[in-house]
Design goal:
By secondary structure, the chain is an alpha+beta fold. Helix content is 28%, strand content 20%. Helix 1 crosses helix 6. The structure holds flavin mononucleotide.
Length: 250
């Protein structure tokens, strides 16, 4: 079994920053401007540090017409910059790895006051101007900028009980908080395709597709919210994407 590269990758300070930025992140589609020079420098710094091996992030001036307008979804407009989430197709679970680092980047941006929107479907592949090696693929993009409007007050999400296989009120606090952080995570078409089960110090992330951005995003949220106790990630098998094992006080 492959070693999970998330183990020890993010410092306690990064995990705490991500935990605090979680409630601030939402999918912003209307921007009034881009990051200023300081914010852009900080985004470049973050992009160079948050990506797991086999993935990387490129920040570019937003190409014209990068985003497709689709019926019933607010068009993405006004962003001066964009980021490309890039994965090496030969890595183990490349989309999941890109989801982990990509969400860390999105939360670094939120902590800097920069808004984002994960986009893996509604963008024009033909205008993406990333400098890719033979094995690399752009797996998603995001606009980067400052929101034109106030953030929405309501998040449309499943209830915690719907994503947990047993009542999470009976779980230890770290597992409950990690599950709640997964509940708040963004997902493609807001499908929230994850389930969580807890037993014997282990929180399991379950899903139909182990290699997906959504699963990586959920893992990053679990990593951010699981608390200070020593913990270990292991990849799962079949419907279990990954296990998070935490040292609990007796
Ligand atoms: C992997 C991923 C792909 C997404 N792709 C698109 C997309 O192609 N177009 C779009 O407008 N929004 C896209 N979204 C944004 C989701 O629709 C959004 O995260 C979800 O509705 C939850 O809303 P929130 O992010 O405001 O909490 C994507 C989100 C994720 C996580």
């Amino acid at each position: 079994m492959e070693e999970c590269p998330l183990n020890g990758f993010y410092s306690p300070a990064q995990r705490e920053r991500y935990r605090q930025a979680l409630p601030r992140r939402y999918s912003c589609r209307a921007y009034r401007g881009g990051p200023d020079a300081d914010q852009l420098a900080a985004l470049h710094y973050a992009a160079a540090r948050v990506c797991l091996p086999g993935t990387r992030i490129e920040i570019v001036p937003c190409p014209e017409k990068l985003f497709l307008h689709v019926p019933l979804v607010e068009p993405i407009r006004g962003a001066t910059h964009a980021a490309y989430f890039i994965a090496d197709k030969n890595a183990y679970l490349p989309h999941t790895l890109a989801g982990i680092g990509g969400e860390a980047f999105v939360l670094e941006a939120a902590a800097l006051g920069i808004d984002t929107c994960w986009v893996s479907g509604t963008y024009r592949r033909s205008v993406v101007d990333a400098d890719l090696t033979e094995n690399e693929r752009v797996v998603a993009v995001t606009p980067l900028g400052v929101a034109e409007k106030e953030p929405p007050t309501v998040r449309k999400r499943k209830k915690l009980a719907e994503i947990c296989t047993t009542p999470p009120e009976n779980w230890p606090l770290w597992a409950y908080q990690a599950a709640e952080a997964v509940r708040q995570a963004p997902s493609a078409v807001n499908m929230q395709p994850w389930r969580l089960s807890y037993a014997q110090r282990t929180l399991r992330l379950l899903g139909k597709r182990a290699d997906s951005l959504d699963m990586g995003i959920a893992m990053l949220h679990m990593e951010a919210a699981a608390g200070d106790a020593p913990h270990l990630w292991q990849w799962g098998e079949d419907k279990c994407v990954a296990h998070l094992i935490v040292e609990e006080n007796p």
